[in-house]
Write a structure and sequence with these properties.
binds adenosine-5'-triphosphate; alpha/beta; 4-stranded antiparallel β-sheet; single chain
Length: 308
């Protein structure tokens, strides 16, 4: 349903998006996961036609976005990162206004606005000015606006940014329901758990490139089946690298104060590792051992943690 080939955008010397290709199938829930500045917003802005790429093509369904923009955009709904509505209008008035701009005929628009307000849990307060809403309610309205013309493809840019966990779960549930009904969804996030819980497939993105794409299970294979040991402490990447270089470990990621690795020799367990680190003067603040997770994959691919 979404087909992107060789998409690129440069700002001067900076390659904000550097040759991205991907396909999202009809009804699929696809996530872009990456840290701030990875290029997620730039990519989504090019997929929805807000930003013209320097190179590459975007197809929405059978339509080339830049050759048949009207037909392509008719299939698209966008939920931007910055809420886009009028605070002095009520939620219902906002939906009627934005739906009107999308060209939805009035009687149909009234019906679909009421149904969407119900779905996002705003029906009871639909007639109040939006300025009185909580942050979570505003996010739900932002989502509702993207849905008012019943798009086949919904693009969401960090739909849960800046809201509390309960409000976030609420939005994620709504997104999941919309996907179950057959809407193709592409969304960006820098929350690992969000991507892990929600997505059929995930693209891990950094420095304008897709580093790996797959389901959570497929991505986990990047680090293999062995348990991952995570070390945290007051060490530099260089110190820990030197300390571990002759040990039977396979290093997955190294950074100041953080390293992840596998133990690779029978009989060389955690006790041996801790004893070696201590003898080498490495001070650990925390040590954990766990099955491979999306976080360990992310660390291996990007070499850094994903934090808010
Ligand atoms: P965030 O989660 O913070 O929104 P992101 O992954 O969406 O991050 P982008 O907003 O796409 O990242 O930005 C990618 C890179 O392009 C960043 O280094 C950013 O500073 C740069 N960038 C984005 N827009 C512009 C612009 N209009 N002019 C110059 N540089 C830009």
């Amino acid at each position: 349903m979404i087909s992107v080939e060789g998409l690129s955008k440069r700002y001067g010397e900076l390659r904000a998006v550097d040759g991205i290709s991907l396909r999202v199938a009809r009804g699929e829930l696809f996530g872009f996961l990456g840290p701030n500045g990875a290029g997620k917003t730039t990519t989504i802005s090019m997929i929805c036609g807000l930003l013209r790429p320097d190179d590459g093509t975007v197809f929405i369904g059978e339509y080339n976005l830049w050759e048949s923009p009207k037909a392509a955009k008719r299939l698209l709904g966008l939920v931007p990162q910055e809420p886009a509505f009028y605070e002095e209008f009520s939620a219902r008035e906002n939906l009627l206004f934005w739906g009107g701009l999308y060209g939805v005929p009035r009687p149909e628009l009234k019906k679909s606005s009421d149904a969407i307000l119900e779905r996002v849990g705003l029906a009871e307060r639909a007639k109040e000015p939006v300025s009185r809403y909580s942050g979570g309610m505003k996010r739900r309205l932002n989502l509702a606006i993207g849905l008012v013309h019943r798009p086949q493809v919904l693009l969401l840019d960090e739909p849960t940014v800046g809201i509390d966990p309960q409000a976030r779960n609420n939005i994620l549930e709504i997104i999941r329901d919309i996907a179950r009904e057959g809407t193709t969804i592409l969304f960006t996030t820098h929350h690992l758990e969000e991507a892990e819980k929600l997505c059929d497939r995930i693209a891990i993105m950094d420095h304008g490139r897709i580093l790996q794409t797959g389901s959570v299970g497929e991505l986990a294979k990047v680090v293999g089946d062995r348990e991952v040991v995570t070390l945290r402490g007051k060490f530099t990447a260089q110190q820990i690298e030197q300390c571990l270089q002759h040990e039977p470990v396979a290093v997955l990621s190294l950074a100041d104060q953080l390293a992840t690795l596998h133990l690779v020799r029978e009989g060389y367990g955690m006790a041996s590792l801790v004893s070696h680190l201590s003898k080498s003067g490495i001070e650990l603040a925390d040590l954990s051992i766990q099955k491979p997770t999306l976080e360990s994959v992310y660390l291996k691919l990007t070499g850094r943690e994903l934090r808010d």
